[in-house]
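Q: May I have one protein plus its fold?
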Amino acid sequence: MDHESRLQRLVETDWYSPRRLLSSPIQYDFPGDRFIPNRSLMNLDQAHGLLTAKPKEYYNPKFNDAYRQKIAENLTLDSEGRPFRMLVFRGSPKSSRNSCRGIDEIRREDAEALKNTTKQSPRRKLPKQEARVLDAPDLIDNYYQKNLDWGNNNILAVALGSELYLWNSKNSNVQKLLQAVEEDNYPTSVAWSGSARNLVVGYANSKLELWDAETSKLVRTLKGHKRRVGTVSWNNCNSNVLSSGSLDKSIVNHDVRVSNNVTCRIRTHTAEVCGLKWSNEGNLLASGGNENLIHIWEPSKMSSSNYLHRFNDHSAAVKALAWCPHQFNVLASGGGTKDGCIKIWNAQKGKCLHSICGLEWNRHHKEILSGHGFSESGNDNNNKLCLWEYPSMTKIGELKSHRSRVIELSQSTDGLTVVSAGADQTLTLWDVFGPPNNQESKVSYLDSLLSLKISPIR
């Protein structure tokens, strides 16, 4: 047999050859193309693994070369026993259309999973009782103070009278960080930095102290206010930028690295600044005042006191402010006794979206948890915690443990537990923010599955 005849025979016996395809008696759904691969017949997962996995050489002296060669040959075969090819140029036989490496089945499962994610998940059940109750003697019952904050180090900082304590939620250890010397000069606000390395403490006499959480030492004292510092907030994207609000009606931005810490001073509020909160992206600052107003600030325009938006829909002081973790530029604000509600704002458009009693955002579900004090609106939510769906703002349920009003809420690092501080001098821990539901887990799994199917081969 001459060279040309042998080559011709090899071409005809090649299972992947276009000539073999045309002369085959097998019926195909579509014939295929010699230049365009048929993706529905390609094992993209195996191809992706072969292209990206780094082979690890492992030599076992118990196995001889013949055995290792046999294993290598079997590992490189496809599901039909033929040598695995990353590119398949043949058509799809009708008789094996549903069994080609399960690609069609996987796609049907993916489509079903996507369909199920559109269905509304069943409403979660609230815990029947609190997870834990801690005594908080000398906790000051003052609406205009921020007495506690839960840091990313799983440590809860709480001001009790003239003292400030750190409670470790992992081992329940309690550490006394500081005690004010002057009787009328006590902590009135606390806030952990994003890294939880520093803790800032505001005082009744206008000063701010910056503490190192690891060494429990005072780093420096910040100046800029003339009266009580009732609210503080760190910029999430710049751990050196700190904003503070005071009874002197001013907002002060600090750079904790430089000797002259005051970088900007704003005097727009006409009453005490009792609420401050930087957005999750660090590009907007929300401020609430005792004159019932909310201002939205952009960092680049703060030095000129030009606010982005001004909201005047509340009828009482605005202390509670929280940015939504699910939607960009959505802010929740809570009013005081005569108002008794939280309003949902689009900070980009400057519009009010909803008005309802509620506050602390759930990071795992689209929900808001409210902590209630006194109310003149006639509702029955006094001293309770209420959970609301977002954006429908329908009540899911309520929790009650405090004998007096709830004056502060804070959330754990993992976003599962909320602590409420009550005027009855107790700290109550609630496992109210459950983990992601099954549907959300399916979406995450589906995203990872689809990402594996993205092949660089076209």
